[in-house]
Specification:
Blueprint lengths: L2 H19 L1 H4 L4 H13 L2 H4 L13 E4 L2 E4 L16 H10 L14 H4 L4 H12 L12 E2 L8 H9 L13 H13 L3 H4 L17 E3 L2 E3 L15 H10 L10 H8 L6 H12 L15 H14 L1 H4 L25 H9 L1 E2 L11 E2 L8 H13 L10 H10 L8
Antiparallel strand pairs: 1-2, 2-3, 4-5, 6-7
Helix pairs in contact: 3-7, 5-7, 9-13, 11-13, 14-17, 16-18, 17-18
């Protein structure tokens, strides 16, 4: 049986199961709509957030840490008691477009409705059709653990009044169809700004700093504007496409939360959509603030250089040039030169696994050095990498390393 024929058989089976579970919903499903919804679910990275470790896909229960406590993702399978099996298309669209659940309660923006509001009704209905075709999974979720008064969902009404404006994406007539498609994906289902934009003390995205980088779960999502040093200014469209498709390119390798985004989301998108996203990102102007930083302490640079030779040069090479698609290039790296050093500190401390995709299935890992290097040594090493070979970034303090050492789990053991 050909792969396309097998795909149709599996799709027919899923739709048949959905019809058995909900006969009324069956009338609304079509193969084309469900398949379109499957693609849109990948674009929205739905599976990653709505799947607990070791759990059934889309059944929810994943703990999402926030500065205000822990939120557990919802069950979005068509289970009628614990999922969204009783939701209508209108109610589903209301969740995406307005942040309001079927029972009228307010959703928390950990569900990124401030971005999903841009999704068209046609795409919302297709996404709902796909989720309705899944096998229902009965899964009751633990209660959210949030500080008062945020543990009362009604508070979100005030938050929405202050920070949220509903509105479907409107194309810019002065831009190309490709640019508009990229803007729709980046600003809508892709919700890139949810991670890559700084937030205020109440957790709302600072729109004036859109896509200039943001702190998230003890990682730093990098600047996606045209900044030459810490953004995408030196990246080509093809390099962005390759990174989103494979998790690697000649400049870098995806680690941390971005590794998961690529595995579950962008690696599943077609090349035309990835190119559209890259086209849009390349058109975002750089920040205008002064980019100059003070020269690092020569003693820190000397100490860091020696540590680099002993611990890093074997993979990243003597001049930080790395190995293409395997070990990230540090020379000229925008991630290394971020204004916030959180990610590079965390990678040295705890290590990480890179993304694995169909195009790049080989696992690449960064070992942990927390067992071997002190806070000051890691600070010196990070400072060196951020300022060697023409790089330029702020000096890292031992106190920053110590704070992350206490707050983050170890990804890989160097022992």
């Amino acid at each position: 049986m050909s792969s396309s024929a097998l795909k149709l058989v599996l799709l027919a089976s899923s739709c048949a199961f959905a019809c058995f579970a909900s006969p009324a919903r069956c009338e609304q499903l079509s193969f084309g709509q469900v398949e379109r919804g499957r693609y849109l679910a990948a674009a929205g990275d739905c599976e990653a957030c709505h799947t607990a470790p070791g759990g059934k896909p889309f059944a929810g229960g994943r703990a999402i840490p926030t500065p205000f406590g822990t939120i557990y993702s919802a069950n979005i399978t068509p289970d009628r008691k614990t999922g969204i099996g009783t939701w209508s298309d209108d109610q589903f669209y209301g969740a995406l477009h307005q942040g309001i659940a079927a029972d009228g309660s307010y959703l928390y923006p950990a569900f990124p409705y401030p971005w999903y509001t841009k999704v068209t009704r046609e795409d919302s209905d297709a996404l709902h059709a796909f989720l309705s075709s899944l096998e229902p999974a009965s899964k009751s979720l633990p209660p959210n653990d949030l500080v008062w008064p945020l543990n009362d969902r009604f508070v979100m009404r005030g938050w929405n009044e202050l920070f949220f404006r509903a509105g479907t994406f409107k194309p810019d007539d002065q831009k190309s169809p490709e640019w508009n498609r990229g803007a729709y994906l980046v600003e809508g289902l892709g919700h890139c700004g949810a991670c890559h934009t700084p937030t205020n003390v109440l957790g709302s995205a600072e729109k004036q700093s859109a896509l200039r980088g943001g702190k998230l779960q003890d990682w730093y999502a990098p600047n996606l504007t045209a900044d030459v040093r810490s953004g995408l200014g030196q990246w080509s469209i093809d390099e962005i496409v390759t990174f989103l498709k494979t998790g690697r390119n000649d400049r870098t390798v995806a680690y941390g939360p971005m590794s998961e985004v690529i595995t579950f989301s962008t690696s599943k998108l077609n090349d035309d959509d990835l190119k559209a996203m890259a086209t849009y990102l390349k058109d975002i102007p750089a920040a205008t603030e002064d980019d100059k930083v003070a020269e690092p302490d020569p003693k820190a640079m000397a100490a860091g250089g020696a540590l680099y030779v002993d611990n890093c040069s074997g993979c990243h090479q003597a001049e930080g040039q790395g190995v293409s698609a395997m070990f990230p290039r540090l020379q000229g790296s925008s991630a290394v030169q971020d204004r916030d050093p959180t990610t590079i500190i965390r990678l040295i401390l705890n290590g990480a696994h890179a993304a694995t995709t169909d195009a790049r299935p080989t696992q690449v890992s960064m070992p942990a050095f927390d067992w071997k290097l002190s806070d000051q040594q890691i600070a010196d090493l990070a400072t060196y990498v951020r300022n060697a070979w023409g790089n330029s970034a702020t000096q890292v303090a031992a106190s920053q390393v110590g704070e992350l050492r206490r707050s983050t789990p170890q990804e890989l053991s160097g022992r």
